């Protein structure tokens, strides 16, 4: 099955295949600034995703928080862990039988280089690195 990728009003991106579902939440619009508090929009996105996953046989869910490299490594690590835990808590409320593993990577796994060709940092690029990724693996499905 070819993955289906959908952008949800620039706040999230989801990708679906028979075996997995992946959801990437942009931290800038889905969390309060420098906080693990989910916005109402993030809760709506999670609720819509949960509705799609609920009737499937879920093998496991991983939730990984990421940050940019602006603050210190210790602060970023904790923020990434706290954001992943916030998302995992919402998932656990609706999917109590699912095996959910939250973790944080701080700034260690960027998806975009935070500097342009001249070596100048760009806020819009750093924003891409501030995210929470949810990966749901379904039991019994084939790739």
TrEMBL record:
| SUPFAM superfamilies cross-referenced by the UniProt entry | OmpA-like
What are the alphabetically sorted keywords of the record? Cell outer membrane, Membrane
* Localisation per UniProt entry: Cell outer membrane
Read off the InterPro entries from this record: Bact_OuterMem_StrucFunc, OMP_bac, OmpA-like, OmpA-like_sf
Q: Which Pfam families match?
A: OmpA
Region (Disordered) location: 96-120
Which ranges carry the OmpA-like domain?
18-140
Q: Name one GO cellular component term.
A: cell outer membrane
Name of the protein this chain belongs to: OmpA-like domain-containing protein
Q: Which organism is it from?
A: Bowdeniella nasicola
């Amino acid at each position: 099955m070819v993955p289906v990728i959908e952008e949800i009003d620039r706040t999230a991106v989801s990708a679906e295949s028979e075996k997995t579902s992946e959801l990437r939440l942009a931290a800038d619009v889905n969390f309060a600034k420098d906080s693990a508090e989910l916005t109402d929009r993030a809760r709506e996105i999670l609720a819509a995703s949960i509705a799609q996953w609920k009737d499937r046989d879920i093998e496991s869910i991983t939730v990984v928080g990421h940050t940019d490299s602006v603050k210190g490594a210790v602060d970023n690590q904790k923020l990434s862990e706290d954001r992943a835990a916030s998302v995992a808590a919402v998932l656990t409320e609706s999917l109590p039988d699912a095996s959910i593993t939250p973790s944080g990577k701080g700034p260690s796994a960027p998806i975009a280089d935070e500097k342009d060709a001249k070596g100048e940092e760009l806020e819009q690029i750093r924003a891409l690195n501030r995210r929470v990724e949810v990966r749901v693996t379904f039991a019994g499905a084939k790739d």
